[in-house]
Amino acid sequence: MAIVTLETDAAEQLLRLPTSIKDRIAKLLARLEHWPVVSGAKPMRGELAGRFRLRTGDYRLLFRVENSEVIVEKIGHRDRFYKD
User: Fold this and answer.
1) Exposure string (b/e) for 40-79, b if CB count within 10 Å is 16 or more?
2) Model pTM?
């Protein structure tokens, strides 16, 4: 089992999401507790190498793994997710 933590920016981004999306993101966060047995986690490349992403519909969750801790860095809509 992994410990899932949200960075400050990710926590703020989560609070700004619509309630229906928050529920879907909460399910992803619960799945991350079972790291590394998480289906759908895609390793990132380029500048984001060393990080992973999970998606639910049009929303994405960017995270990294350090020892037994999963650290969520960013949560957002796909249209502006990779630009910031």
Assistant:
1) ebeeeeeeeeebbbbeeeebbbbbebeeeebbbebbbeee
2) 0.94
Supply the CATH number for residue 59's domain: 3.30.2310.20
Nearest Cα to Cα of residue 14 among 37, 5, 84: 5
- Can you give the residue range of the structural domain that contains 24? 3-81
The number of domains in the chain is: 1
Strand, helix or coil for residue 25: helix
pLDDT per position as a tens digit, 19-32? 999 999 999 999 99
